[in-house]
Structure formats: C-alpha cells, structure tokens
UniProtKB/TrEMBL annotation, chain B:
Domain of life: Bacteria
Taxonomic path: Bacteria, Bacillati, Actinomycetota, Actinomycetes, Propionibacteriales
UniProt xrefs under Pfam families: HTH_26
Name of the protein this chain belongs to: Transcriptional regulator
Record-annotated HTH cro/C1-type domain positions: 13-62
PROSITE patterns: HTH_CROC1
SMART domains for the chain: HTH_XRE
SUPFAM superfamilies to which the protein is assigned, alphabetical: lambda repressor-like DNA-binding domains (SSF47413)
MF terms in GO: DNA binding
Length: 158, 68
C-alpha cells in the first residue's frame, strides 16, 4: 500500500500541474490563436463556434481531472469501493460523452467542408480514440461495481 | 434471521462476560453483539472454530434454526 500511496500522490501532483496548464490554455492560448487566425481569414464565421467547441472540450477535460482527483483521494482513504465513488465515475463518463458528442459535431462539419483528407482523418482518429477510452471507462465502471459488491459482502462476514 | 447464534446460553454456562469472550475469540465486542442479536449475515469457519474452542462446545451448540 505504501507504493500505491506514493503513486497516488505523484498522480495527484501531475493532475494539478496539468490542470493549471489547461487553465492557461483556456484563458490565453486558445482565444488568442483563434482570434489571430480569424483576422487572417477572409470569412471568419467559424471564430466563435470553434472557440466554444474548444473551450467545451477543455472544460470536459477539467471535469475528468477533478473527478479523477477525487477518486484518487478515495483510493488513499480506502473508500473507493463504495457507492460514493460512482458519482465521480459517472461524472467522468458523462464528461467524456459530452466531449465526444461536441467533437463529433465539429468532425461532421469538417467532413462536409474540408477539401483535403488530412484534417478529417485526424479528427476521425481522435473520435475513435475517444470512443475506445469512453467504452473502457464503462468496462472499468462495471468492474468497480463487482468489486464494490464483493467488498460489501465480505464486510458483512464476521 | 431464521438462524440464531446462541452465544448467551453458552456464555452463561461458562460464566464468561461478553468482553472476555470477545477478547479470547479475537472479535470486536460490536461483532459479538451482531452475532447475539441475530443480525449477522455470514460467519467465517475460523470464527466459528475460535468460538467453539473458547466455549468448548460444538458448532451445533451455537447455531440454531428457528422457523419464523
């Protein structure tokens, strides 16, 4: 358990760093880059829709990070096999579903408007990877349910 | 619970207190209370063995089925 404890602490530290980096990306880099590109474009109708899509994606990533942070805390306190953990797991799955749907919308738009295959291919690969991740979360949720049931049963044994 | 753990009868026969019994068996007094109140859902064979050893009795002396 000592190793697990250290890994959990390290993970939480990395999550915190990544969270700060994403906030910087959200408030500085993304709006700046998009408005710059919009200025260069002749018809920047996509400026605000694209900004909203990217910000929503980043917010979803942040939600997943916060929920993961909470779950890691539960692992440390040996509370992970309880019903309270499912609130955070469901939040992760929900955020992933929202992010995937929004990204799929962007992908559909790019598919229709793009004249070279590179960008649609890239967006499709990201959608596939997102689907794999989301379904994996679903499997892990089922495993957590099984383990929680077993733990609850074992706790009742005297 | 149709299965009742009759610890109190055996405790009275041996003149053991619940606290002493719990300590000798290696259970918490809270778990002994759960057994006595018939709220236990499952008992380990090792727990049953320890109880039989401390009370010098058979499992059948401790467990009783009652029709509800």
């Amino acid at each position: 358990m000592l190793t697990t404890d250290r890994v959990v602490q390290g993970l939480r530290g990395l999550l915190m760093l990544a969270f700060v980096a994403i906030v910087l990306l959200q408030v500085m880099s993304v709006p700046g880059t998009i408005s710059y590109n919009a200025e260069q474009s002749s018809d920047p109708f996509w400026e605000y829709p694209l900004l909203i899509v990217l910000e929503v994606e980043l917010i979803c990533v942040q939600v997943v990070m916060v929920a993961t942070w909470q779950l890691l805390g539960m692992v440390r306190q040996d509370l992970i096999f309880s019903d309270a953990a499912f609130r955070w797991v469901d939040l992760i799955i929900g955020a992933m579903a929202v992010a995937w749907t929004v990204w799929a919308g962007l992908g559909a738009f790019i598919f229709v408007t793009s004249d070279d295959p590179g960008l649609p291919l890239m967006v499709s690969i990201m959608l596939l990877a997102g689907a794999v991740l989301g379904l994996l979360m679903f499997v892990m949720r089922a495993l957590l349910r099984q383990a929680t049931t077993l733990r609850t049963d074992m706790d009742a044994v005297i | 619970m149709p299965i009742v753990v009759r610890i109190d009868v055996e405790l009275a026969r041996r003149k053991l207190s619940v606290g002493e019994f719990a300590e000798q068996v290696g259970l918490t007094p809270a778990n002994v209370a759960v057994l006595k109140n018939g709220r236990a859902k499952a008992v380990r064979f090792s727990t049953l063995e320890a109880m039989c050893r401390v009370l010098d009795c058979q499992p059948g002396d401790l467990l009783e089925w009652v029709d509800e």
